[in-house]
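Hi, can you check this record?
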Amino acid sequence: GELGRGAMGVVYRAQDPAIGRTVAVKTIRIGQFNDEREIQHVQERMMREAQAAGILSHNNIVTIYDIQHENGTAFIFMEYVDGDTLEKILLADTPIDKQLILSILKQAAEALDYAHQRGIVHRDVKPANVLLLDGDPVLIDFGIAHLTDDVRLTSVGLVMGTPGYLAPEIIEGGQVTPATDWWGWAASLAYAASGRPPFGRGAMDAVLARVSRGEPDLDGVDPRLAPLLHAALSTRAGERPHRDEVVRALEVYAHGGDVTDVIRVRPAAPQTQVLTAGSTARLPVPAPAQGTPTPAPPPPASRTPGPPRPQTVLLYTPDEPSDRPSAN
C-alpha cells in the first residue's frame, strides 16, 4: 500500500516474504535526470551511501535494510515506523506539551551526534523527517539525503529539499558539514516553539532569500530559548553551537534557566529594510571656453563576459504530502 508521494518518488508499505517483516519501501526515480552513464554513476554512489547509512543502529534513527535498482529507479528498503511526523502533529490544532517538545528535540540532537561521529550527515533535517513513536522521535531519510544530493550534483543548478529547511550553505552550493544538520535541527525547534515556520511561507524565492540573509522570524519563541536558535541559525556554519552546547542549553532551559548561561550570545540579524530613494540632482556643467574644442566621450570599456551563473531550481512541490515511511 502507498504511504506517501513526493517529487522524487513514492513510499510503500510492504511485506518481506522471507521473514514476514513489514517494511517501508522508498522509490527514487533517477533515470529521468541523467543519461545512461550518469545513471550508473548515481547508482554506484547510492549503493555506497546506503551501505554507510546502514551502519547506523540507534533507537532514534530508522534502519536501512537494503537497496536495489531497476530501470532507472532505486528501491530503498527500511524499517517501517507506524507513527505520524512531527510536522503533521504541529499542524494539528491540539497543543503539544513543552516538555514533550524538548524531549523530542533533545533525543533528535543525540541521534544526529551519533551519526556525525560515524561520518554521516543527514542534510535534510526538518519536522517532516521526524516520526514519533510512543512520544519518541525517529529520524528518517538518513543517507537518502545523500542519495538525492547525487542527483543534484549531476544536474547543474538543481537543489533538493524544502524551502525554509535548507541550510544557507546548501542553497549556495557550499560545503556540507555536521553544522548543516544543527541548522535544520534549530529550524525544526523554532517551528515547534512558535507554531510556524521560522522563515515563513509563500513564494519560494522569498523564503530562500530570508534563509540566505539569516532572518528567522522567532516571534512567539520564549526569550530564554531564542538565543540558542539565533546562534544555530547563523548563516556562518562556524558560529553555530556544537552538540554539547545544544544539549546542555536544552537541559538548562528545561530546568528554568537561560540558554545564554551555556552558549555565546549572538545578536539577532537586523531585518532587511527598503529605503526610499529621493531624486538625484545633477550639477550644472560649465560651458567650455570660447575656442576650446569639446572633448569626445571616452569609448565604452570592453569587458570579457564571465561564465553564466547556474540557476537554482528547487525540486519541491508544496501541495504534495510528506515523503515518509509511516502510516497515514
Notes: The longest helix spans residues 98-116.
